[in-house]
Amino acid sequence: MADSILWHIAYAPYETYTSRAMRVPITRVDPTLPLPSYATEGSAGFDLIIRTTTTVEAGGMARLPANVIVATPPGHMLLIAVRSSTPRRTGLRLANGVGIVDQDYAGPDDELHIEVWNPTSDPVVVQRGDRIAQGVFVRIAQADWEEQDATGQPTRGGFGSTG
After folding, report:
1. How far apart are the C-alpha atoms of 16 and 42, rounded to whole Å?
2. 3-state class (DSSP) for residue 107
3. In what side-by-side order are the strands of the sheet with 113-117?
4. Overall domain count for the chain
5. Largest CA distance in the chain
6. Residue 156 lies in a domain
7. In a domain, 76, yes or no
8. What is d(CA 128, CA 33) in angstroms, rounded to the nearest whole number?
9. 111: domain CATH number?
């Protein structure tokens, strides 16, 4: 039995995994812009669309409205990352490296925003309709802390100690 489960996980047809779509409630702030979309059948992330043209000054930061309010499903978080082409095309980075959207951030005024930093020496204009970031739903679990005097594990050597 275990062997057949492992075989299924390792060798099951690709379609098995891509056909398991979650139904996720979403509201567009501006209905004239399209819903977020997956670029290909195998895309892990869906592209978010910027609602307003914004200039991000050199060395500055800006919050770019992503036009949607998303009700992240229970047991998941919504991870926000820049698209792989964004730094190369614009120089922009996510200001905090990665965005985490909680399940309970879905009220009527909870539009997703992409906070970016422009480390370049030139202003960057992000146009309405641009796709600079993507979202990925990730399963989560909350910890039920069990405090102890020690964890019983040896010290590894500190930050960056594995090379």
Report:
1. 12
2. coil
3. 61-65, 113-117, 93-94
4. 1
5. 60
6. no
7. yes
8. 9
9. 2.70.40.10
68-70 and 26-28 beta bridge pairing: antiparallel
Inform me whether the pLDDT recorded for 19 exceeds 60. Answer: no
Amino acid of residue 109:
D
Q: How far apart are CA 113 and CA 130, in angstroms?
A: 13
CB 52 within 8 A of CB 128: yes
Q: What is the pLDDT of residue 47?
A: 96
| 115-159 tens-digit pLDDT | 999 999 999 999 999 999 999 999 999 999 999 998 888 887 777
Q: Is residue 148 part of a domain?
A: no
Rounded-to-integer distance, Cα 152 and Cα 148, Å: 9
The C-alpha atoms of residue 138 and residue 142 are separated, in whole angstroms, by: 13
Q: Which domain holds residue 107?
A: 24-139
Q: What does the alpha-carbon distance between residue 37 and residue 138 come to, in Å, rounded to a whole number?
A: 17
- Residue 41 DSSP class: T
Whether residue 131 contacts residue 78, with contact meaning beta carbons closer than 8 Å, is answered with no
Let me know if residue 69 belongs to a domain.
yes
Rg (the chain; Cα; Å): 20
- The Cβ of residue 7 has, within 10 Å, a number of other Cβ atoms equal to 10
